[in-house]
Automatic annotation (TrEMBL):
InterPro entries: LpqE-like, Lxx211020-like, PCuAC_sf
Pfam families cross-referenced by the UniProt entry: PCuAC
Taxonomic classification: unclassified sequences, metagenomes, ecological metagenomes
Coiled-coil parts of chain: none
Protein's name in the database: Copper-binding protein
UniProt region (Disordered), positions on chain: 164-184
Amino acid sequence: MTPALLTRAVCALFFFSAPLAAEGIMVDDAYIRSSTAKSTSGAAFMVVMNHSGADDRLIGASSDVADKVELHSHRSDDNGIMRMGEIEGGVAIAADEMHAFKRGGDHLMFMGLKESLVEGAMVPVTLEFEKAGAVEIEVMVDQDRKPNHGKMKHDKMKHDKIEHGDMKHDHGDMDHAGHEMPKD
């Protein structure tokens, strides 16, 4: 096979496989963190996009670095106290929609960490979907990430021009009984 023919064959392979890569479940901006090097729990955050053309549901997750991985969220109880707990029944992600797993909201809770989360390391995670099945991803350990500071480019934002008004920036009285929460 000549180099020119080989080049065309490789280009054709990428051209015809590109739409397949865009279909299905995609994950962006995934990272995991723990509150300290000796923590026995950690949390992962990411944006999950459903390009499959059909509604689906994230029903579970697993990783070799933890005894257990659960889908968690923060919810206010009857007294207005935020509590973290497992999301029963999973997280629905409609066709052509996305769901953000973010700090202070839905996230993947890693319990019983078997090893320390080392900055910059990649952690293998399996996301289990009702229809798409198992989706293997790699999640980077990023202990220093600030909330809402993903891959978004901030260089063109005029931070001094943003009006915050009466916006509250605290987390209130959150009760995380039984769980260590990663610190901001």
